[in-house]
Amino acid sequence: MIVSLFQKYIRYFSISKMDYISVFITLGGVTLLVIALCAPVLYWAEASAVDANIKSFEDAVWLSFMIVTTIGFGDFYPVTGLGRFIAIPLAATGIGVFGTLAGYIGSVVLDKVVRQATTDMLHQQNSRIELLAKQNNELNAHIREIASENKELNRMIVELSKNNEALNRKIDHDTDEILKALREK
Which domains does the chain carry? Predict the structure, then answer.
């Protein structure tokens, strides 16, 4: 069931398995390295103390895991100054590991959200561009129609101008004839 959830998580967030595995291997490796370095020192510092409750190496390893996982000390806890000092890098490692893991998961989730928002925004922009292109095509068709009508109107104006010139010449001629006839009388 956990593997199935892990696979769904990876598919949903489009994380490459190698990226995810490399993060876990790195975090796990760092954690184990710190435990491997601190547990023997913790055992050495605590085992010889009079009131120590860490009596075996296994107790020291167990305490190291409890500190790293931030669960707490529980039945085992350091009583010497050196033992407490060694608990600091263990606690810092636990906080760092869980903080890094939470940050990584958060960044993956945020990346998915941003990617989805960007995709939605691009779809909206594409829809708007398509609408504007359609309106532009309609306006171009109207402009061509008006230009065609303009061409026809210009042709009619030229024809009317010619007719008007001919009519003006006829009027001028007729006026001259009338004036000539009136003068002769």
Answer: 2-125 (1.10.287.70)
DSSP assigned state of 69: T
> For 96-112, what is each residue's pLDDT tens digit?
888 888 888 888 888 88
Residue 185, H or E segment = none
Token pair for 72:
């707490």
Whole-structure pTM over 0.85, yes or no? no
CA distance 78 to 88: 11
* Residue written as token pair 């210009």: 154
pLDDT tens digits, one per residue of 64-97 = 989 888 777 677 888 899 999 999 999 999 898 8
Rounded Cα distance, 130 and 43, in Å: 72
* Sign of the CA dihedral with 23 first, then 28, 29, and 35 last: positive
Q: What is the DSSP letter of 74?
A: T
Q: Which of 40, 32, 87, 82 is CA-nearest to residue 59?
A: 40
- 120 CB-side CA count, 13 A: 6
